[in-house]
């Protein structure tokens, strides 16, 4: 029985991939040619080229689409995975409500801020006041981001979710480890040092355009709260990317399937 189940599972996976690729290709073909996706056209059938110019254009367009899909489909897989975990978080938001989610974030971050504020007054614990301010600021940003992400997810459509909900969710996700590393030296090698290496790589590659890297090096130092600002800046393009991938996954494989 286990062998048959395994076989069915493998076949199911391969079949699902084939369906995804067919939908992507059909959507691509339908940008130029009518009735290509095969759904909703069962009576009229799929349109096929008849004249020689139509056939040449049809098969060239099909070839370009097939090559493009080989590059696009891995992003669809990213979108499907993101949608799965986003659905888990959304179910939590549904159970708790926007107020409940915000209250949980406020409680967690508030307790952390109070704890660090209390330790800054203890003589035996060396907690600089700047660290307390950093935690407090990050607490406010993370709590507000959590509330906005939940609100945009509930009341916004797909566009608003991509533009705002996913970036705010990324902000609430990125800030906690960064802030924890800022106030906990033992975490620096796992969070701050890789962040520094990433910043150097970006300055030496992506930000060379227009000498932006030299401007950033001359005017900013990556230390303290700047790490939090760095990841806050990353959260928006990362959120837009993941939101777009989820939208692509919704086109290829609707969430009800």
Give a short synopsis of this structure.
The chain has 257 residues and is an all-alpha fold. It has seven helices and no strands.
Provide keyphrases for this structure.
single chain, 257 residues, 0% strand, mainly alpha
Structure description:
- This protein is an all-alpha fold.
- 79% of the residues lie in helices and 0% in strands.
- It has seven helices and no strands.
- It has helices spanning 2-29, 52-119, 129-155, 158-183, 188-204, 212-219, 225-252.
- The longest helix has 68 residues, at 52-119.
- Mean pLDDT is 76; it is low at 1-10.
Q: Strand content of the residues, in percent?
A: under 5%
What is the rounded distance between the termini?
Answer: 25 Å
Helix content: over 70%
The structural class is mainly alpha
Number of strands: 0
- Shape by Cα distribution: elongated
Helical element count? 7
Mean residue pLDDT: 76
**Unreliable sequence segments:** 1-10
Biggest β-sheet strands, sense, barrel: none
State the order of secondary-structure elements, H for helix, E for strand. Answer: HHHHHHH
Secondary structure elements and pairings:
Elements: H1 2-29, H2 52-119, H3 129-155, H4 158-183, H5 188-204, H6 212-219, H7 225-252
Helix pairs in contact: 1-2, 2-3, 2-7, 3-4, 4-5, 4-7
